[in-house]
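User: Structure with sulfoquinovose-uridine-C1,5'-diphosphate, tokens only please.
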Amino acid sequence: MNTEQHILILGADGYLGWPTAMYFSKLGYQVTAVDNYFRRNACTELDVGMLYPIPTLIERAKIWHERTGREIKVVIGDLQDPELMRSFFDGRVQYQWAIDQSFTGVPGTVVHYAEQPSAPYSLLDYKHANFTLANNLLITNNLLFAIRDFNRATHIVHVGTMGEYGTPDIDIEEGWLEIEHKGRKDTFLFPRQASSLYHTTKIMDTDLMWFAVRTWGLKITDLMQGPVYGIKTDASNVDERLNTIFNYDEIFGTVINRFITQAIVGYPLTVYGKGGQTRGYININDTLQCIHKSTINPPSPGKLRIYNQIMETFSVNELAEKIQKVGKTLGYPVEIQRVDNPRKEAEEHYYNPTYQGLLELGVEPHYLTDKSLASMFKVVEMYKQNIRKDVIYKGMQW
Ligand code: USQ
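Assistant:
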């Protein structure tokens, strides 16, 4: 087996993990998908809505196999356990589902999504804060040590966040900044200042990875991603049971997905505070392209490569207006409602990030057009009867 063609997806049951597993499987990679069902269990624990129920990861892998003939091997387990992480490299792995139970060998690439991804979740209370810190940092550390000990040539593709940079009053570079100080120059990680504990764990991940790269010569790509939107990906079109998990609640739903859902059920769009918060956004299909391009263009050993994974920037007000406009053309009388900002964040600020690196690798952006918004409306509308208004906004504060 060519290890370059074997990809291990950590966090494969999540919003991005499952579409990534199908994407690489469709390309002909041998895919191993791992998850502990954190996300779906947290949705149950917190009683937040999902647009539709999703089959288990094992059921999805079976449906994928029935539809395409391709195999995604599945392991259900908690990667905070270092022995589980190490089993993917030393051959002790036991697949919960696979057509062929034999060890596929050491992966050439590991895509690392196995983290608690929500800023509000990380600040619900000290227990959820501790879980976020422990889960995110231990899994990253377990991965780094497994690669250090078994195969330093394995490339890690990690998804970080644009929120690591915060909203500084200077242009945001792709990961690094050259500093001139008292007549001398050096290059450092771009200054980071997160506005949630979740985002802080991503800063700490970057520091752990930067240490591992400097010390053990690992190959790592860290992708600073903005809020993602979308449901359908090419691979999920083969069967609607393969759609990714879609949240519209205030804990796990990202803003564009939330606003579309709100528009459909006649819930005024919840613009937090003044609505001048500007972020870089990306379509879920472009996330897949970015992961793929990063995978086939690994950095050299001893290099931490950082890209800003966004395709365009909008303020919350701009998003609300766009979604209102498209909603109205589809017959929805969409209202916009400013609500007191439950978060601590700048509501009017400078924002000018660079995001050239992934375009230079050949990613072809899908932009947030009226047409793409309308097509998302059409998909969400199909599940309108499942949308629970009571979970849209409870005002969870930090
Ligand atoms: N917002 C509203 N109304 C809402 C929901 C959100 O005004 O109903 C605002 C937020 O206050 C924020 C912006 O929209 O200013 C984006 O919020 P979000 O919930 O879509 O995104 P965020 O909490 O920042 O986190 C998401 C993902 C996270 C990822 C991050 C990228 O959950 O995993 O790392 O986007 S970034 O925002 O660039 O840090």
